[in-house]
Amino acid sequence: MALNDFDLVLFGGGGDLSMRKLIPALYARNRAGDLPPTAQLICVGRHPWSNEEFLATLNENAKPNIPAANLTPQAWDAFCARIRYISLDATDAATYSALKDVLRDDPALTRVFYLAMSPTLFAQICKNLAACGLATPNSRVVLEKPLGRDLASAKQINQEVGKVFDESQIFRIDHYLGKEAVQNLLALRFGNVLFEPLWRREWISDVQITIAEELGVGNRMGYYESSGALRDMMQNHLLQLLCITAMEPPLSVEADAVRDEKLKVLRSLKPFTPTTLARNVVRGQYRAGHVEGKPVPAYRSEEGANPDSMTETFVAVKAEIDTWRWSGVPFYLRTGKRMADSLAEIVVRFKAIPHSIFAQPTGSFQPNCLVIRLQPDDGLQLNLMAKTPGDGMRLKPAELELDFRETFKTPRMDAYERLLLDVLRGQLTLFMRSDELEAAWEWVEPILRHWEQDGNDPILYTAGTWGPAASSALIGRDGLQWREEALPET
Ligand code: BG6
């Protein structure tokens, strides 16, 4: 579907997210010919750069994030020709006149304000846009995560932004929802009959969702120190993956149909009690160690770090969903920085066979397991038991692999490319609604309060490992193991 002509204003245009993700995504879509010829990309920031200076910054900081195979001097120049840089103070409405001058005053155009800024500024920016008459009915606003620090601040952002923009104009982004594999999970669940009858407590033993990163916090210490893994990853990315895995079949892929079902999952999450807060949540922070064979410092010794920091770089949680479908099925969620590997996956483990008819004992049968891999390469793996060739009846685990890159040799799209196109099309399915956001904070908030009050330090884990031993103990108490612990030694 061809895009309507648009003006896209990128607040935080010179920031880290723009350089790493947004500019490369817009470049890619421009190169693919998706952007209408007269569409404008207006980057806004505090620095008093000229257009030329800003383009030089893009050249230095954004260009290296574009895969070399996709980069040609012509395509880069054509992209840069669309960009305008405007210096303004987002907190001062008086400086917005420069923006007003370049925005086209045509109600038939789409106008997008992408706020790649601290959430503490969202309300103020929206107010300023309204005060300057820039928030028109053809406008959309994109809000980057994390939206708030807790339930109260998230509610306040929703309220303040809601005074300026209608819910149908608000795009709360969670880039995990734009990942190919997450969409494939929808396809897998609702485009096949095979899994749906088994997708319930009678057949599923547990679900594990892991987002592990080998990277540390890099140059984002300022942000990360006040955020931590719970706010940065768990409240949004992991809970959204849980929702897509656990939700009931929506009526369609229309935005509210999907968001209604996700909301039901969030509202069915069993609230924490003092006992489950102590038992079912693990908070860790990395100490010095080795990642990919290279020494890395402890979190508290990273550049700009607080040497007494209590910020968690790892969190593992056991969640339970109180519904007929999922009652009694644990969902283990974990995420961390400086872990043993970089991967994101959802592991659905089925129950063990009830009885072995073979000479092998029942316990030697590995339960079936479906792995939905988001990263590094998206794909599916189904673990089955199969007979080993030759004489005799000996069963061993075997795998069915589906590698999406191999299977569909079509060009890939980064999550941000897809989500930006959806914003420009006005398609809200992959964005969070205000009630979803608040329900996610409501579930997470007792963990935050508990940590504030208990005064305990995060448990230290060695960089380059799978997190604190307490994380294995969390799942081990239920007689289970994280997937990598259960894999046979190679
Ligand atoms: C972001 C977090 O939302 O997601 C980062 O703020 C994290 O801390 C990133 O590194 C991970 O995203 P991806 O797509 O690289 O797995």
Describe the structure.
This protein is globular. 34% of the residues lie in helices and 21% in strands. It has 490 residues and is α/β, with parallel strands linked by helices. The chain contains 16 helices and 17 strands. The longest helix has 21 residues, at 434-454. The strands form three sheets. Strands 16-15-14-13-7-12-11-8-17 form a nine-stranded mixed sheet, with helices on both faces. The protein has a six-stranded parallel sheet with strand order 3-2-1-4-5-6. 6-O-phosphono-beta-D-glucopyranose (BG6) binds at residues 175, 213, 232, 344, 375.
C-alpha geometry: globular
Global mean pLDDT: 95
Major pleated sheet: 9 strands, mixed
Bound molecules: 6-O-phosphono-beta-D-glucopyranose
- Point out poorly predicted stretches: none
Helicity, in percent? 25-40%
Q: Compute the gyration radius: what is it?
A: 24 Å
**Could you say which structural class the secondary elements and strand pairing correspond to?**
alpha/beta
Distance between termini? 48 Å
The number of helical elements comes to 16
DSSP strand (E) fraction?
Answer: 15-25%
Largest beta sheet: what is the strand line-up?
16-15-14-13-7-12-11-8-17
- Strand count: 17
